[in-house]
Amino acid sequence: MNIGDTLPPLEIPVTLTLIVAGAIASRDYQDVHHDAALAREKGSPDIFMNILTTNGLVGRYVTDHLGPHAVLRKVAIRLGAPNYPGDTMTLTGTVTAVSGNTVEIRVVGANGIGHHVSGTVTAEVPA
Prior knowledge:
Elements (H helix, E strand, L loop, with lengths): L5 E8 L2 H10 L10 H6 L9 H16 L4 E9 L8 E12 L2 E10 L2 E11 L3
Antiparallel strand pairs: 1-3, 2-5, 3-4, 4-5
């Protein structure tokens, strides 16, 4: 890998099932991640994806590209526009640093209303 290399985009359909399953799997029972009526009462147009699900999808994106032996050493992300059901999040990545077996990738996940997630992933790739 070289600085400036790009990862192929990954489109992830944001379904109701993905949002609810991700919240349950991460034990995030906050109502805005599974109850549309309560989410609307709190000012959201619908339920939305939690950060732990997003974090997992970002990790999956990077390891799908780097291979099964890659080890994520650091994932630093920031959320922006919510991921609502019915949208698609497209993840893209660019290599920003390479040092020995360690690579840093800048990842952006965009949906129909803007950037849902942005940040960097540092991974170690065995020689």
